[in-house]
Amino acid sequence: MDYILDHIGIAVRSIDDALPFYLTVLNGIVEDRYTSDAPGVEVHVAVVRTNDKVIELLSPTNKNSPMARFIKQRGKGVHHIAYRVDDLDEAIQEARKKGVRFLEDTLRTNTRGRKLIYVNPASTDGTLIELCSYPSQK
């Protein structure tokens, strides 16, 4: 199984306040911008590409969203690192055989067709890792 760095998710209070750095200093471009109001997600997203790297700026849609809780507990900054795999179900099975635990309630397909799940940070020594695949792009 190959794990390829897909993107880095960064928690911010306001996408509009954070964007200028990524656009003017890092010469990034906004590839996509959307809101996910799904329960347990509730986040505004700006997908920024800088050269061949992708950063997702993530801001809460409301004060009770998981992203708002994250910022309150840990502050702004890196929220997660995402690795792309060819087959998410296979990657989950392989990882489970190696003792990796997942945050089961995070398994979903987002509004842009990316299938994803988060690894339990207890399995990664504290780092939130997303595994993802793009079934519609096969």
State the separation between the terminal residues, measured CA to CA: 16 Å
**Largest sheet, order of strands side by side?**
2-3-4-1-5-8-7-6
Question: Quick one: biggest sheet?
Answer: 8 strands, mixed
Name the CATH architecture. Roll
Query: Quick one: CATH class?
Result: Alpha Beta
Q: Which segments are poorly predicted (pLDDT under 50) over 5 or more consecutive residues? A: none
Mean pLDDT: 95
Number of beta strands: 8
Please state the overall shape, judged from the principal axes of the Cα atoms.
globular
Category by helix and strand content:
alpha+beta
Strand content: 35-45%
Element order: H for helix, E for strand? EHEEEHEHEEE
Number of helices: 3
Radius of gyration: 15 Å
State the fourth-level CATH superfamily: 2,3-Dihydroxybiphenyl 1,2-Dioxygenase, domain 1
The percent range for helix content is 10-25%
Number of domains: 1
CATH topology: 2,3-Dihydroxybiphenyl 1,2-Dioxygenase, domain 1
Which key features would you list for this structure?
Glyas_Bleomycin-R_OHBP_Dase, 8 strands, methylmalonyl-CoA epimerase activity, 138 residues, alpha+beta, VOC family protein, 3 helices, 2,3-Dihydroxybiphenyl 1,2-Dioxygenase, domain 1, eight-stranded mixed β-sheet
Structural summary, described in words:
- The chain is an alpha+beta fold and 138 residues long.
- The protein has one domain: 2,3-Dihydroxybiphenyl 1,2-Dioxygenase, domain 1 (Roll).
- It is 22% helix and 42% strand.
- The chain is built from 3 helices and 8 strands.
- It has an 8-stranded mixed sheet with strand order 2-3-4-1-5-8-7-6.
- β6 (102-109) and β7 form a beta hairpin.
- The chain is globular and about 45 Å long.
- The model has no long low-confidence stretch (mean pLDDT 95).
- This is VOC family protein.
- Keywords: Metal-binding.
- Pfam families: Glyoxalase_4 (PF13669).
- GO terms for molecular function: metal ion binding; methylmalonyl-CoA epimerase activity.
- Belongs to the methylmalonyl-CoA epimerase family.
